[in-house]
Amino acid sequence: MKTAFLEQQIREKKSFLCVGLDTDLEKIPPHLLDEEDPIFVFNKGIIDATKDYAVAFKPNIAFYEAYGIRGWKSLQKTIDYLNQTAPEVFTIADAKRGDIGNTAQRYARAFFEDLQFDAVTVAPYMGHDSVEPFLEFQDKHTILLALTSNSGAFDFQTRDMEGQALYKQVLNTSKSYRNAGNLMYVVGATKAEFLAEIRSIVPDHFLLVPGVGAQGGSLSEVCQHGMNKQVGLLVNSSRGIIYASNGRGYGEAARTKAMELQREMATYL
User: From CA 216, how far away is CA 184, in angstroms rounded?
Assistant: First the structure.
């Protein structure tokens, strides 16, 4: 399983940092817009600058789909570059797919076989037959949305459903899915107070934790409540790292921010 390499990286780099590649042409340094593929050039600069401190990278697929075929080509070049130059890092397609049967299988093939990502985020609302097609792929991981960092999470995810919050039902039910050992879960850093109880339900699974940095999540609280014996955390930072500067020194600025987070993470390991 790729998680064995992930755990090794965490020990070697003293880091559980995931860098989110939410690349927006309106926010990248203006001088890159003259490049043939500014999205890929920007991503390459961020990857080169931060890969010493990050154990995972997470392109948000919407930021590539928004540019049509041009964006998909940039995504393909980005994942190819990651797999060629940093094969040890864990790659996540933040796609939040959620459909059933053959459709789910096609989504899984797109991200696991064609693009060669290690993991993909999946919405659980349609149940087991929207998740299990992803879990069929050996050495690949499905990251289920459990308790997200946005304010709208309280619309449904924390609502009481027959004596149990919906997100807890998602966690408990998903453990019975075929190949459930391939599951990871999204838990927002802005919901850190829920992490201890989440850990009691899924003690051994990795948690992908967005929301540290620009969204105001606390790394210390995440570690206090969410860390297990294998660390079991991937803490994502996107805007706080990749847009640390929009000048020609954007890579160095991103490296500094990633290094600061890595050094803080090292104190919790």
Answer: 23
Report the distance separating Cα 154 and Cα 147, nearest Å: 9
Domain span holding position 109: 2-266
Q: Count how many domains the chain has.
A: 1
Q: Residue written as tokens 């899984």?
A: 108
Distance CA 55, CA 84 (A): 15
Backbone φ, ψ for residue 87 (5° rounding): -65, -15
Active site residues: 96
DSSP state of 247: S
Residue 215: pLDDT over 60: no
Q: Look at residue 161 in the predicted model and tell me its pLDDT.
A: 85
User: pLDDT-derived band of residue 198, with 50, 70 and 90 as boundaries?
Assistant: very high
Residue 112's CATH number: 3.20.20.70
Q: What is the pTM of this model?
A: 0.95
pLDDT of residue 235 exceeding 70 = yes
Task: Give how far Cα 187 sits from Cα of 68, 150, 194, Å.
Answer: 30, 10, 9
**Single-letter code of the amino acid located at 63:** F
